[in-house]
């Protein structure tokens, strides 16, 4: 399946947040909303969406590793709980920054659409 990108003057530079096809069709609604929202607001929405996905992934990774016991990096020492929480936090941040699982793109789209509506009605 091939996706196309719509070129807009103020399009976000991050490839994870480009205006790509949505269900096989260009997302003209998002492209129009991006025209109304300032680049500064777009950058804030990107950061918020990525941070939200990182929080989601951190929760997911924490649940995945909560029952691990034994030797190695997930050993059962007194400091393991703290170390494991920091490790899963870094994993989740890096995973979200690399593109994540798609939560950030939908959150970003929702934020931009809401901001565009606010600008129109204000």
Rg to the nearest angstrom?
Answer: 18 Å
Number of helices: 4
Q: Main beta sheet: strand number and arrangement?
A: 2 strands, antiparallel
Order of helices and strands: EEHHHH
Percentage of residues in DSSP E strands: under 5%
List the helices and strands and how they pair.
Elements: E1 21-22, E2 25-26, H1 28-36, H2 39-65, H3 80-97, H4 103-121
Antiparallel strand pairs: 1-2
Helix pairs in contact: 1-4, 2-3, 2-4
Summarize the structure.
This protein has 122 residues and is mainly α. The protein is built from four helices and two strands; from the N terminus they run E-E-H-H-H-H.
Explain what this protein looks like in three dimensions:
This protein has 122 residues and is mostly helical. 60% of the residues lie in helices and 3% in strands. It contains 4 helices and 2 strands, in the order E-E-H-H-H-H. It has helices spanning 28-36, 39-65, 80-97, 103-121, and strands spanning 21-22, 25-26. A two-stranded antiparallel ribbon has the order 1-2. Strand 1 (21-22) and strand 2 (25-26) form a beta hairpin. Helix 2 packs across helix 3 and helix 2 (39-65) runs antiparallel to helix 4 (103-121). Mean pLDDT is 79; it is low at 1-15.
Features:
122 residues, mainly alpha, two-stranded antiparallel sheet, elongated, disordered N terminus
């Amino acid at each position: 399946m091939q996706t196309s990108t719509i070129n807009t003057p103020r399009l976000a530079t991050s490839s994870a947040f480009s205006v790509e096809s949505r269900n096989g069709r260009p997302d003209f609604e998002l492209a129009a909303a991006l025209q109304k929202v300032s680049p500064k607001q777009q950058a804030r929405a990107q950061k918020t969406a990525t941070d939200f996905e990182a929080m989601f992934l951190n929760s997911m990774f924490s649940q995945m590793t909560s029952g691990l016991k034994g030797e190695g990096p997930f050993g059962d020492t007194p400091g393991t709980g703290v170390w494991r929480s920091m490790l899963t936090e870094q994993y989740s941040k890096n995973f979200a920054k690399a593109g994540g699982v798609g939560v950030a793109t939908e959150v970003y789209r929702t934020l931009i659409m809401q901001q565009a509506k606010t600008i129109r009605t204000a």
